[in-house]
Every structure is written in structure tokens, then in C-alpha cells.
Amino acid sequence: MAQYDYDLFTIGAGSGGVRASRISASFGAKVAVAEERDLGGTCVNVGCIPKKLLVYASHYGEDFDDMPGFGWTVERHFDWAKLIANKNKEISRLNGIYRKILADAGVTLMEGHAEVVDPHTVAVDGKRITAKYILVAVGSWPSVPKFPGSEHAITSNEAFYLPSLPERVIVVGGGYIGVEFAGIFHGLGARTTQLYRGDLFLRGFDDDIRKSLADEMRKRGVDLRFNLDISKIEKHGDGLTATLTDGSVLDAEQILYATGRGSKTPDLGLEKAGVKLKANGAVVVDEYSKSTIDSVYAIGDCTDRMMLTPVAIAEGMALANTLFNDKPTKPSYLNVPTAVFSTPNCGTVGLTEAEARGRGYEIDIYRSTFKPLRHTLSGRDERTMMKLVVDQASDKVLGCHMVGPDAGEIVQGLAIALNCGATKAQFDMTIGIHPSAAEEFVTMRSKAAS
Ligand code: NDP
Q1: pLDDT above 70 coverage of the chain, percent
Q2: Distance of CA 107 from the midpoint of ligand 1 (Å)
Q3: Is residue 2's pLDDT more than 80?
Q4: Rounded to the nearest whole angstrom, what is the distance from the C-alpha of residue 238 to the centroid of ligand 1?
Q5: Is the pLDDT of residue 240 over 80?
Q6: How many structural domains is the chain composed of?
Q7: Which one of the listed residues 59, 152, 401, 434 is annotated catalytic?
Q8: CA torsion sign, 196 to 200 to 201 to 204?
């Protein structure tokens, strides 16, 4: 008789949990996964995928604006309900694919709420199951800070299911979700104000990205206001009035709070079972994703390392190798590229200029800003920004940063170059693809700063 019901019991069928479960099963482990909501987690249901679909939708707005210069004219009409219905249909299809992936891998799916009872026991809707290892992959959840009227604000979760496109929207928060949704709402035609409590949004990104994106969003007509927050929201009928910290008031139909996501660890029984959590609820883990209890592991957003889907997947992959493939693997966080699907996109990999200087590197900065070819005919006043941070001593490229169309697509390839330790000389000897925006990354010859 086996000592446990399962080798691995995963709580949460999001990107990380599903990857860890199915790869562990492929290594011969007996695996079950519990999920209390739709399969696929945040990324599939209320994150990356529906967000990107809405971003695509929002871009048509400016494509229509740009087309007369290319000889086109059309009558425009936008139907929010149709977009959301089509998006929902696609999400359901993806939910089905996740179900099939688990079934094909031989992973048992239990739909219900799971709790950790002790280091080797979970309860799913009260039914006890034992496992050699328990994996916590429960993700994160957005919340609205408490202040008078905060109950009238929505989060990104609700934004994906609004019954209609609001005429006026206030977006609060200057992180990924804030700038992405400001671009979505503005592009779809809502009058959009974005508030950020600090001097300049996207804290942690390279300053040239932060400034370029702010310029481009303002040129498009997004009402960006920094050093401001909401102190009170009042509701009258279908409308909301926000009183800002400078005493001014703003009316809107929707107020979206994008002020961070917390780990979804409450009601899991983790602390009772001896698993240590950080003050923000994130599971404390070591480099192999092991919690403070030997048989309990955690990956993805609920560990608050890097809240990015591909990172959760890499952590899940590494864990399966560690536990069931005799290959202890630490996930690598080196040169993780990331894109903000703002309008226009930001793409970044490696060190920012400030980080490089802070780490004591003597650096050269190469920076280029230019009007994309497409806008010579569209007439749009848009500039793309590209930047390289180069270590003077080794000539290695330490960071690549971009604001402009397709930045997310372009920076992916550069991340490979950085992981290979590419030097500026190797960037320079690479032939460009002409005419493209990407070629600028291999043709920057003049230093902008040292
Ligand atoms: P972020 O942590 O990225 O940004 C939160 C923003 O809200 C910051 O500007 C922060 O300000 C501000 N903020 C925090 N608390 C308050 C408060 N009490 N009042 C006012 N402002 C506040 O969180 P997001 O919600 O945007 O996204 C969560 C995570 O999800 C991201 O960090 C990212 O890892 C992931 N994500 C990734 C995406 C992608 O890869 N494209 C897309 C969407 C999300 P300050 O900077 O001053 O702290």
C-alpha cells in the first residue's frame, strides 16, 4: 500500500500549478490538483490573455485615426458587448484546453476549495487527501485600499466583465495593470484619467521608459495626473464623484483600482500547518520553492517573487524536475524580460540605467528616439524610444529598454542575447532588418551618456 494517496497535491490550476502538475505526472508521479474557480488561473481568466485581447481591440481606435493617410476611410462603430462576449467565448475554450491538458497528463482534477490540514494532508471541500508533497500555487488577487467610498471602485477582475464601456473612467495606480487599462479604456473611446501617487508611474522601470510612455500617453489624450490619489468616492445614481487628495473632484462612471495584488493565501490553513507567510501573505520559500515545511512547496504569484506568468511556469517546471526527475533545479531570474502592454508597449530586459549605476558599473548609454516609418504617412505624432545600457569594462549589454509598437515582441529576442552575454560590439556586427524599428537596436553608434 502506498503511504500517501498522491505523490503531489497541487492547490491551484493556474499557469504554474498546471505546469508543475503535468510535468510531475510525466515523470511518473501520481498527481491531483484542486481548483475552486475556472481553470487557467489569473492569466487565462482575468489577466494576460483577456487583457491582450482588449489591448488589440483598443488599438483599432488609433488604426482608424491613422488610416486616411494611407488612403482608407471607413465608418467606425464599436460594440463593447460583442467584444466581451467574444472574449468570454475564447476564455471558455481555453478553460477546456486546460481541462484536457490535465486529463491527458493523467492528473486528477478536484473542483472545490482546498485547505492544508497538516504537512501531508489537504481537505477539498472537507474530504481529506494525503500527499507526499503539497504544492501551493494559488496565485494573487487584486484589492482596493480602504477609504470612504472605496466599495464603489472596481478592480481588474470586474473591468473584464463590465456591462458597458464607461464614458469616463478613472484608473488609480501606476503599475502594469494601471497603464495597460488606461490604454485600453482610452483606445476604446472612454475619457480616461490615470492617477498615480508618486512623481512618475512605472516605478522600477528605466526612467526613459517611464518618461517616454508618459509623453506618448499624454499626446494620445490620456489625462495623466501624478502625485495624486483619491480620498473619497461618492455615488449618485449611475455616476461616481471622486474627491482627490488636492481637493479637486472628478466625475466618472467607473473607477478602477490597480494598486497591486496580494497573495491568495488566507483560508488555506497554511500557518496552522506550520508554513511561514510574509506580512503580505506571501509564502516564504527557499531557492527551490520549498516553504518552511519540508513537504510543502509554493510557486507563482503567491510567493511574491516575480508576478509574471512565464516565471510561474518556469518555477513549476523547476519544481517538477527537483521533486520527481532527480534534477534539483533552482528557477533562474536572470534577465527576465517583461513587457507592459500599454499603448504604446514598453519592453525591457536586464538592468535599468539607475540599477547599473547603483551596482557600481561604469556604463555607456545609447539612446535613440525616432518617428516610426508608419507615421510618416499617418501623420501621428508618435516617437519610439530605444535604449541600451552597456558595461564599459566588459562591453556587455546590461539592459535593453524600449517604448514603441511591438516592444514586447522585439525585446524577447534581445533577452536571449543578454543571457548569452552579448557585447555591444556583437550587437553592432549584427545586420539589421530594414526597414524595421528593431534594427535600431543594432545600429546605435553614438553614446548618449556615460
Ligand atoms: P504593481 O505593483 O505593478 O503596481 C501597483 C501600483 O499601485 C503602483 O504604481 C503603486 O505605487 C500603486 N499603489 C500601491 N498601493 C497604493 C495605494 N494604497 N494607493 C495608491 N496607489 C497605490 O501592481 P499591478 O496591480 O499593476 O499589477 C500586479 C502585478 O501583476 C505586477 O506587478 C506584475 O508583476 C503583474 N502583471 C504583469 C503584467 C505583464 O506582464 N504585462 C500585466 C499585469 C500585471 P508605487 O509605485 O508608489 O508603489
Answers
A1: 100
A2: 34
A3: no
A4: 27
A5: yes
A6: 3
A7: 434
A8: negative
Q: Are residues 230 and 118 in the same domain?
A: no
Q: Which of 153, 149, 155, 150 is nearest to 175 (CA)?
A: 155
> Does residue 448 lie within any of the structural domains?
no
pLDDT tens digits for 365-395? 999 999 999 999 999 999 999 999 999 999 9
CATH number where 35 lies: 3.50.50.60
CATH number of 362's domain: 3.30.390.30
Distance (angstroms) between ligand 1 centre and the Cα of 273 equals 30
At 440 the three-state DSSP class reads helix
Mutate to test the pocket of ligand 1, among 51, 305, 307 (most ligand atoms within 8 A of CB): 307
Q: Residue 419: which of 334, 311, 353, 331 has the closest Cα?
A: 334
> Ligand 1: which residues within 6 Å by Cβ?
145, 172-178, 180, 196-198, 201, 203, 229, 258-261, 307-308, 338-341
pTM (predicted TM-score): 0.97
Which structural domain range is residue 419 located in?
Answer: 338-442
Q: How confident is the model at residue 414 (pLDDT cuts 50, 70, 90)?
A: very high
> Is 92 in the same domain as 156?
no
* Active site annotation includes 434: yes
